[in-house]
Automatic annotation (TrEMBL):
Record domain AB hydrolase-1: where: 3-222
Pfam families reported in the protein's UniProt record: Abhydrolase_6 (PF12697)
Record-given protein name: Alpha/beta hydrolase
Coiled coil residues, start to end: none
PANTHER family: AB HYDROLASE-1 DOMAIN-CONTAINING PROTEIN-RELATED (PTHR37017), ESTERASE_LIPASE_THIOESTERASE DOMAIN-CONTAINING PROTEIN (PTHR37017:SF11)
Alphabetical list of InterPro entries matching this protein: AB_hydrolase_1, AB_hydrolase_fold, Sec-Metab_Biosynth_Hydrolase
Protein keywords: Hydrolase
Lineage top rank: taxon: Bacteria
GO terms of molecular function: hydrolase activity
Length: 238
């Protein structure tokens, strides 16, 4: 199985490096993606928006044969869902890592502070305490040293969805910051934050207690959780 790994904000494809061993050992082919504008701190981020990131992943899907699994962390989950909408017949499963599908018209996070036309990784005080669980001083230093400013448009642009077949694509939500029972209760209560999630016909919830960056704080466990989700698609290794 081809597995496309979509990083969250401020990160490139190398952020998955400690997660992938379990996937490759099982015979899967991983494609850790670096999205436009995230190639380096010096990359040109002007004019890059959410659709550009979705289109970049769609292009990666189109280069492959057969069904693929998408894995999206944080803001990468909204990008993954845009790809599901664009290519529902190609996606075997979408795995959301501390993220979820974003509804039509939603934005990833327009509260992130823009600086000189881009969004650098904010100070740690900007984040909730739950975000930072397990992120030691050494991991924070590593993260900040490798971080790349996010194109503003990716965070601020509204999602555009059009194909209702997206609801037929199975989804796995790996819940990190808070238990999955909270998400399931939101679905039961009709909370607007999960209205798109509630429309997906086949959803499973997996708990991986840690902060918002499990690829750094619990990478081996995250790899195992993704592998289990891929195996449940029933298509096996490529």
């Amino acid at each position: 199985m081809d597995i496309l790994l979509i990083p969250g904000f401020w990160l490139d494809g190398s952020s998955w490096s400690a997660v992938t061993p379990a996937l490759t050992a099982a015979g899967h082919t991983v494609h850790p993606l670096t999205l436009p504008g995230l190639e380096s701190p010096d990359a040109d981020r002007g004019g890059i928006g959410l659709r550009d990131h979705i289109d970049a992943v769609v292009q990666a899907v189109d280069t492959l044969d057969g069904p693929v699994v998408l894995v999206g962390h944080s803001g990468g989950g909204a990008i993954a869902y845009g790809v599901v909408d664009a290519r529902p017949e190609r996606i075997a499963r979408t795995v959301y890592v501390d993220s979820g599908p974003m509804s039509d018209g939603g934005v990833i996070n327009d509260n992130l502070p823009e600086v000189n036309g881009e969004i650098p990784l904010p100070d740690w005080q900007f984040f909730e305490a739950a975000d930072l669980i397990g992120l030691t001083d050494d991991l924070r230093t590593m993260f900040r040293d490798r971080s790349v400013p996010q194109p503003t448009g990716v965070a601020y642009d509204p999602q555009q969805l059009s194909d209702e077949r997206r609801w037929d694509v199975p989804a796995t939500l790996i819940a990190c910051e808070f238990p999955s029972v909270v998400l399931q209760q939101w679905v039961a209560d009709g909370h607007p934050f999960v209205q798109e999630l509630a429309r997906i016909k086949d959803v499973e919830f997996v708990d991986l207690p840690t902060g918002h960056w499990p690829q750094f704080t619990r990478p081996a466990d995250l790899g195992d959780a993704i592998l289990a989700a891929v195996d449940r698609t029933g298509t096996g290794a490529a």
